[in-house]
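hey so u asked for the seq, here:
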Amino acid sequence: MAKPGDALLFSVVRRDHRPWLLLVNAAVATTGGLLLPTALANAVDMALSGTFVLVTVLFLLLLAVTEIIGDAIGIVLAASITSRATAWLRRRTSRKLLSLGHPSPFAAGDAVSRVTGDCGNAGGVAVTVVTLLVTAVSSAGAVVALGLLDWRLAAVFAVSVPLAMFLVRTHMQLTADDVLAYQEVSGDVSARLVDAVSGRRTIAAAGIAPQETRRVLRPLPRLAAAGAGMWRTQATMMWRAGLLLPAVEVAVLVTAGFGVMAGRLTPGEVLAALGYAALGMGVVGQIPQLTALERMRASATRIAEVLDAPVPGRPAALPGAGVLELRDVSVGTALRDVSLSIPAGTFAAIVGSSGSGKSTLASVLGGLSSVDSGRVLRDGDVGYAFERPVLLGATIGRAIGYGTDADEVQVRDAAVAAQVHDALIRLPRGYETPLADAPLSGGEAQRIGLARAIVRDPEVLVLDDATASLDTVTEAKVDRALTTALPGRTRVVVTHRPATAARADVVVWLDNGRVRGTGTHLALWDDADYRAVFTGGE
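ran it, structure tokens below
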């Protein structure tokens, strides 16, 4: 039965010419393997006759060397094909996950599982297909070789073929569902584990480690059931194949024995018949490869889910760089029917009590969150700074210039604007200090994150509590520096401070996911509920 990922696996095989080289190499090695039992039979008959034929010995050695060299070349080609295919799948999957934006429809841990485990599994499909194809051809060739030795041998062997095919087909059918379930539950466990690791300090502080452990491990029974199903199916296949192969060999051997008694076969040809019987049952012996193929199909299905996921549409552009507009936007329960227009070059402050939807609104304006309904219109690139920035890069300088081609001067100018330059030049190696060795305070990390946003030279700068760790004086200096460094740019700031709201051109007051009011801080201050946002009602 076809799966959604089968077309993707076909693309993996088709995109590279190396599987053809592997197939040619395998064909040469297989030809040698099919000729080897006959050559060995001739050598045995030669030895029993008491004569020495140099050509017979040399031919046997040539076939043996051909198989050895073919196997060595096959190992190198298989490694190259698998690594290239895996890298191609990971690039495609990673790019698609990035294009889906934030929040992604795939949980972080599940996305990691698909990029690493599933792409790694599916990357080996070309090697597995070639292996199974060559095994099938080898098995067919072995049956033909038995017929050339004695048609009776081929007839006896042919009786086992339908049973062998039935075993293979049943194994693949029974394994498919368990393999897919195992992959899906593994991704679920990975997602839960990543969430737990990300919030480990909160979990420890709340004293709920046992409950969180149970939550992470809750899918394990389903994982164990899927794994047990795979092993049961494989064990059943193994013992059936383990009985079938000796039975076929005994039947062929008995038939060959009667052939020797009748003078149709030589002792060496009996040995060759046993070799061909083993080669003919090669497909049944490929149980691990058949299981691996089902695992690859399941992995490809999970990758295809990512590649086929619809990409959220880009916000419509507005005339004038830096213009932001929302029309009846709703995001879950965080925002409801929000309509808002922020002209280019405006300094807008978003205020509201805890849980009012401030960060969600900033995320929507900055393009980090999709919306459930409504329209988002935006023009210009966006720079984003967070309350707790995650700093990436080998050094402090590269952490500021992360994701850009900014040179040293641009990095320093951004750090100056963010009021963090003086702190950085006091580090042992200044901007070249390794990020892991830099003793940064919370405020310094915030300002480095702010510098990272500034260095992008965006038309829109969104600060989600990005100066919350700064004192009021330093925050005012940063505000003045931003005005100088990014003149005429639109700034959206999430803040809890009345001084910041007072400096803004317009204040957006959120209350329970809705816009309660807009205007200047001074105009809104007359409302007691607005004052309570900053005073806590006192």
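The mean pLDDT is 81. The domain at 324-535 is CATH 3.40.50.300 (Rossmann fold).
lmk if thats what u needed
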